[in-house]
Design brief:
single chain; alpha/beta; eight-stranded parallel sheet; two-stranded antiparallel sheet; 21 helices; 11% strand
Length: 564
């Protein structure tokens, strides 16, 4: 439809335009003169409303509305924002709509399979499992199975039956005196401070009920971690919260005595080299979120005057050989508990240098947690969150391959590996766990999916201290809404049903245990046509490997079948 636009104050311009493009007509015609005319009209209407309506209350409301209109408009005209100055009062609508845009998108626009960062389908699945409801999909998959990148698992004609699956970390290292029997699925690192006290207590209590572990994050071992009673993995970060003090120069230094005291409350120790959400960048906690109890857990003076930002690297060691010595020190101070490292893969040669040190010194970590560059956090610079760090599938595959080449991982039976691999990323379904196991992991960790079990609605307000569900805020008015007693059950339910779904996928593939899962079970759409994918399937595709013969006679080659 072709329309004419006529501009106010005698500046008439005519041109052709498409009616459905650009702003509505009344917005383009709105300016300071229009604001004044409407304002005068409101004043006049309120003045004549008494004799016309005969209702003093209604007239007072009209007068108050006119006064508020003028007050807001004059504020806008004298503001330093262009939109408000040019479109008094009406310009405020833009900022109102912008503030509720995430909610509008989430509830009315977002598709079920659209991840921003988690899709509605995945969030709904987490909510259902947290309530103990076994999820089922009616009328087939909603996914486009012909879309490039679609992934599926090759099932077996001979499914197996599996009992509970546990991974014993540290069992293949004589230096470890207290190996830890880990669940396949555990809570990833989230600090007290980033999360509220009630959230920490609910997660730790849920881990106790479900028999899995809870990573403390680098914020130290708080009283709420201990009260929950779950198996704790202590994340020792670059600021040494809970095991460090300030030196004369104001730098945080590792304190062996303090570490030894807190180590008695945990099952494993994890040295954080980097995290996927902000690799090579220290942790960030705004000072507004630091309470006396948070300062206690981090061994900080209170009240604080500045944000609590961790340095980007450790000062207890400066090279791979010194890090190996630090691993030995922590293992001895903890009484022989498993000690590992956490990293997001960056420059590959640095990791291979690290593995060379493991071989040369004879000292290696008991586990390595690989964090994906897509990792989530409460606060991170957008450049780090969006563009730095290797995604989990590529990083995990690389680390597993290097450790296999170094003789520290067994590619056929992963239970015989000297170093366990933990994949930390967007694990929210049994399939996502199984995919990481195919790529080399023994254990999978997740952070944000467990927050959904607490009631997270993905409001994306984690860094503002205004989380509406009371999870990532220290505001007592908001944390009041989170009941640890009921939420701990939901955390345990979510874990139980997600692991159950993963084990069912294992059984469908015919594997005998988690240790036998291999990359050949996972296929991505388009790989065979492009001569990519698991070697076993490529050979079958070419009809030359004995799995499928050209005369259509099927044979079984156990040696090929067992190749990863």
């Amino acid at each position: 439809m072709w329309v004419w636009f006529t501009y106010p104050r005698g500046r008439q311009q005519s041109y052709l335009s498409i009616a459905h493009q650009g702003m509505p007509d009344f917005v383009e015609h709105w300016d300071r003169d229009a604001f004044r005319k409407v304002g005068y009209g409101l004043l006049g209407l309120s003045a004549i409303s008494v004799p016309l309506l005969g209702n003093i209350v209604l007239s007072s409301i009209l007068a108050g509305g006119a006064g508020g209109y003028w007050y807001l408009g004059l504020q806008d005209i004298n503001s330093n924002q262009s939109i408000r100055r040019n479109f008094p009062v009406l310009g405020r609508v833009r900022y109102i709509l912008e503030s509720i845009r995430p909610e509008i998108r989430q509830y009315f626009i977002e598709g079920d399979e659209e991840a921003v960062p988690f899709s509605r389908g995945h969030r709904s699945l987490a909510y259902q499992r947290a309530r103990g409801i076994t999820a089922a999909v009616p009328f087939g998959t909603k996914r486009d199975t012909n879309c490039p990148g679609y992934e599926w698992v090759n099932h077996s004609m001979y499914p197996t039956h599996l009992d509970e699956q546990r991974v014993v970390i540290g069992a293949n290292n004589p230096s470890v005196k207290q190996p830890y029997s880990s669940s396949l699925f555990n809570i990833s690192a989230m600090s007290y401070g980033a999360l509220s006290d009630r959230a920490i207590q609910a997660l730790s209590s849920g881990a106790r009920l479900g028999g899995f572990s809870h990573n403390t994050g680098e914020g130290g071992v708080s009283r709420f971690h201990k009260e929950g009673g779950g198996d704790l993995v202590w994340n020792v970060g670059t600021a040494y919260f809970g095991c460090g003090t300030f030196d004369a120069n104001g730098e945080r230094k590792f304190d062996p005595d303090m570490f030894k005291v807190n180590a008695q409350y945990v099952k494993m120790i994890e040295i954080k080299l980097s995290q996927g959400a902000k690799p090579a960048h220290g942790g960030m906690l705004p000072k507004e979120k630091i309470t006396p109890l948070i300062a206690e857990a981090r061994n900080l003076p209170y009240p604080v005057e500045h944000d609590c930002n961790s340095p980007p690297k450790h000062n207890a060691f400066s090279n791979p050989e010194e890090m190996c010595a630090f691993i030995t020190q922590l293992r001895e101070l903890s009484g022989g508990k498993p000690v590992g490292i956490k990293l997001c893969v960056g420059q590959p040669e640095e990791f291979t240098a690290l593995v060379h040190s493991f071989i040369n010194t004879g000292v290696h970590p008991d586990f390595i947690t690989v964090d994906g560059g897509e990792g989530g956090t409460g606060a991170a610079p957008p450049e780090f969150s969006n563009s730095i760090g290797t995604p989990l599938p590529e990083g995990l595959s690389f680390v597993h391959a290097v450790l296999v080449g170094a003789g520290l991982r067994d590619p056929v039976d992963k239970s015989k590996s000297k170093i366990a691999l933990i994949a930390s990323g967007k694990h929210i379904t049994g399939m996502s766990l199984f995919k990481s196991f195919c790529l080399g992991a023994d254990v999978a960790n997740a952070a944000r999916s467990f927050l959904f079990s607490l009631g997270c609605i993905q409001a994306l307000k984690c860094n503002s201290n205004t989380c509406p569900t009371g999870i990532t805020t220290q505001n007592p008015e908001l944390t009041f809404g989170l009941d640890p007693t009921s939420k701990q059950v939901r955390v345990a339910n979510f874990h139980k049903l997600t692991v159950k779904a993963c084990i069912e996928v294992m059984e469908a593939c015919g594997v005998e245990s988690w240790a036998k899962i291999h990359p050949g079970l996972l296929v991505k759409q388009g790989e065979l046509l492009e001569n990519k994918g698991p070697q076993r399937l490529l050979e079958a595709w070419d009809l030359e490997d004995g799995i499928v013969s050209r005369d259509s006679q099927y044979t079984i080659d156990h040696q090929v079948h067992n190749q990863p």
